[in-house]
Amino acid sequence: MQSFDLFSIGHSNIPVERFVGVLRSAGVNAVADVRSTPASRRFPWFSRKNLARTLQGEGVLYVPFGETLGGRPRDPALYRDGIADYEEMARQPEFRVGLDRLLTVAKRHRVCLMCAEREPLDCHRCLLVSRSLADRGCAVGHILQDGTIEPHTATEQRLLACSGPDADLFVTGQREQLAAAYRLRCRAVAYRATAGSKGGEFRDA
């Protein structure tokens, strides 16, 4: 089995008992919540207080990272045409500090990033955070809903495959193609500011 430095998971709508079981199967003992708004009206067991309480009872550390590693920037300058600009977000000092803090926690615990989306390629935990971790040499494994773990490198191959020919028109080399595929996917799935939104009021995660 491949060795991973960190994991990621999307809670989606799965029962909390199964969520905890999947984490335990991967040996996870710390959850890094990267949701900008750690609450869920539809699945309240994944709201911050409820989840933290459940994880504590299972001996799993809960650490909120939404302020620095969340996918909904409050700064309007970090949006392009109303869409969160992940590339620009990754360059921000606050984001880099958040990564440093995350890696510090990962030295002492087996950490899993958590957001809401089921599919890694639909979520900033993969397209922004895991990409940045991979750039730092970290091996990230995405825990899928059936409990299997997909290496981030394999996820990137799926990203290239689903991007189609449009991502390859003006770039040469795998690194450039991958960057173009990330850019295309981020534009498609990143958070969008709603009409009339103020101060970070965006659609639910």
List keywords for this structure.
six-stranded mixed β-sheet; Protein-Tyrosine Phosphatase, Chain A; 205 residues; alpha/beta
Quick structural gist:
This protein is α/β, with parallel strands linked by helices. It is 41% helix and 14% strand. A hairpin with a 5-residue loop joins strand 7 (140-143) and strand 8.
Would you mind describing this structure in some detail?
The protein has 205 residues and is of the alpha/beta class. It has helices spanning 16-25, 48-57, 66-69, 86-90, 93-108, 124-135, 152-163, 174-189, and strands at 6-10, 30-33, 61-64, 79-80, 83-84, 111-115, 140-143, 149-151. Strands 3-2-6-1-7-8 form a 6-stranded mixed sheet, with helices on both faces. A two-stranded antiparallel ribbon has the order 4-5. Helix 7 (152-163) crosses helix 8.
Secondary-structure-derived class? alpha/beta
Estimated radius of gyration: 16 Å
- Taking pLDDT < 50 over at least 5 consecutive residues as the criterion, the unreliable ranges are 196-205
Spatial strand sequence of the major β-sheet? 3-2-6-1-7-8
Going by CATH, the architecture would be Alpha-Beta Complex
Helical percent range? 40-55%
Order of helices and strands: EHEHEHEEHHEHEEHH
How confident is the prediction overall: mean pLDDT?
A: 91
Terminal CA distance reads: 32 Å
Q: What number of structural domains do the residues give?
A: 1
What is the beta-strand fraction? 5-15%
Tally of helical runs: 8
Number of strands: 8
